[in-house]
Each structure stands twice: as C-alpha cells, then as structure tokens.
Design goal:
Layout lengths: L1 E2 L4 E5 L8 E8 L5 E4 L5 E3 L5 E7 L5 E8 L7 E8 L9 E4 L2 E2 L6 E3 L2 E8 L11 E6 L6 E7 L2 E6 L5 E9 L6 E2 L3 E4 L7 E5 L2 E2 L5 E3 L4 E7 L11 E5 L9 E4 L10 E6 L5 E8 L6 E10 L6
Parallel strand pairs: 1-8, 11-18, 21-27
Antiparallel strand pairs: 2-6, 3-5, 3-7, 4-6, 7-8, 9-10, 9-12, 12-15, 13-16, 14-15, 16-17, 16-18, 19-20, 19-22, 22-25, 23-26, 24-25, 26-27
C-alpha cells in the first residue's frame, strides 16, 4: 500500500543467485503518476544487501497499480499488485449507511435492547473495495454497546437495555492516520419520562397540572441524566379523556409536528372542563413520555 502524496520506501531482498541487479517498472498505473528514485526502467545494483527505491504518487488520486520486477538471473518477472491510498479516509469518499439508509447528518437514534447494521461502500473506481476498515463507537460505558463485524465493511451494533447517552462513531482504515468521524448519535430510553420532565411556564407538571381554557402556556422539557434528548425531533399531542378531545387542543408547533427545540405554546378549549393527558414522542413513537390527570378549567372558574 502506497500513501499518495508521500515518499514511500520500496525495498527488495533477494539472494545474489536470484538477482544481482533488478529493474522496476510500472505495468498498470490506473491513470496515476509517480516519481521514482532510482528512475523506473533502469537496472539497479544492490545497496547494503537489498534493492531500494523511493516511490512517490504525485496526483491526488487513489487506485490499484501493478509493479513489475525483472532480474537477469530469472526468466519470470515478479508482479506485485499494490494500491495507492490517502492517509485520510475522508478523501476516499466512503458512503456509510445504517440499515441500508444513508447515515443522516444529524446522527442516528438508537434504543436499548436494539441492534442495527452499519455498512460502508466506496465509489466503483475506488481501490478500497476490500481494504480493511474498523468501526469504533465511543461515549458509553464499557459493556453498554457492542460492535461485531458481520462481513466486508459491515458491522452489527447492539445496545444494552436501559442505556442512554450520546455516542460517537468513528470509521478508520488500515494504515491510515485520519478516520471518518460520523455525526454524533444518541441512545434513548423508550420511556421519555426517564429522560426529561415537562414544565408548564417553568413549573414541573409530572401529572395533574391545572390548565385554564384560552390561556397560552409554554410547555418545555427539562432534561435529566446525560441529556441525549437534546436536539432529537419530538412532537406533542393531547391524550383524550372523557369529553376532552384532540380538537380542544392547539399548539405551536402544531400537534404531531416534530421539532428539535422542545418548546411548545399550547391552548385548550375555553368552553369545556375535564381531565386529559399529554404525550411527547419520537417519530414512529419508538419512545414516548406521558403525563396524565391534567385538569382543564373554564376562565374565571375554580372548579
């Protein structure tokens, strides 16, 4: 493997009966250009028992090449398949997917007791189609997350039940010094009541909050623990109870509309009284938080 844009040492050791001199040529270059010292195509003498070249790919391109070593003492030449790669995996343009969907710019959302498949592919012309890659994920405690290779450039990521926090995936390539830092992702508990609490104009309303019809309230989330819920798109909605229905509830952003900001302006019907619940939830309701027994009063009423 040759690192592009850098000087690479090529050394060949062979007994004198096999090679008193060697000639190095490039028989397949994949459109790449190189500087070599000694020059390609000339006979090279031994230097302290070995044959040595300095080999530098000069274009900012990667690809597979074939080197051709020829000795006067041997009829058959020696062909060496090699590849030219960058030391920065980002320059090789890998595409990372999770469960066959492109890795989202905002990261992925995982839940305890869940497994997902992470895979990486390269452009068709890339020389890294079979190059060894490693996926590591930091951010959680040891044992909370497991990464198992399940094929070429494919890994199964499994999360322990009851785990919550931010995770930081990193994709690295063998012999490369810079890896691909994938966007921060999150592991959530499915019970969002364990991740955050609702506040009504700054006061906690675990259950049993009092609402007056037609009055606007600011409903916000106060996070707990490692706060992985920050920035996760959530929606709010009313849970009907008795005569109170979803039609009696309005909010901005609208009920059922997902927002990463977790602040809602809400109003309820001024002509009704009764009880209702509120819920916040992720897309697909994979994680839900519920508060119940909130009471709706008419304006000016104490009942």
């Amino acid at each position: 493997m040759f690192r592009r844009g850098q000087e690479n040492d090529v050394r060949v050791e062979a007994p004198p009966e096999l090679a008193r001199q060697l000639n190095l040529e490039l028989v397949e270059s994949a459109g790449l250009e190189f500087q070599a010292s000694p020059k390609l195509g000339i006979w090279v003498d031994r230097d302290n028992g070995s044959f040595n070249w300095k080999f530098t790919p000069v274009k900012e391109l990667s690809g597979k090449i074939v080197l051709f070593f020829l000795s006067r003492e041997e009829v058959m030449p020696w062909l060496l398949e090699s590849r030219v790669v960058s030391t920065d995996l980002n320059q090789e343009k890998p595409t990372v997917k999770v469960n066959d969907v492109d890795y989202p710019p905002g990261g992925i959302l995982l839940f305890g007791d869940e497994s997902v498949t992470v895979s990486a592919t390269f452009p068709p012309e890339s020389s890294l189609q079979d190059h060894p890659l490693t996926l590591t994920i930091g951010g959680l405690q040891p044992g909370d997350l497991e990464v198992v290779e399940s094929g070429l450039h494919k890994w199964i990521v499994s999360i322990k039940d009851g785990v919550s926090g931010g995770i930081y995936p990193l994709l690295t390539g063998l012999g490369m010094t810079i890896g691909v830092k994938l966007p921060k992702s999150r592991v959530l508990l499915r019970d969002l009541n364990r991740e955050a609490v609702l506040t009504q104009d700054g006061l906690y309303i675990h259950n049993g909050g009092i609402f007056v019809g037609a009055r606007e309230y600011e409903i916000t989330l106060t996070y707990s623990g490692s706060r992985p819920l920050i920035g996760v798109p959530l929606a709010i909605d009313l849970i009907p109870d008795g005569e109170i229905t979803k039609a009696d509830f309005s909010s901005y952003p609208n009920p059922g509309e997902f927002t990463p900001n977790h602040i809602w302006k809400v109003k309820l019907n001024s002509a009704k009284t009764g009880k209702f619940g509120l819920k916040i939830y992720t897309e697909g309701e994979e994680a839900v938080g519920v508060t119940a027994n909130h009471r709706l009063r008419k304006p000016g009423s104490l009942a």
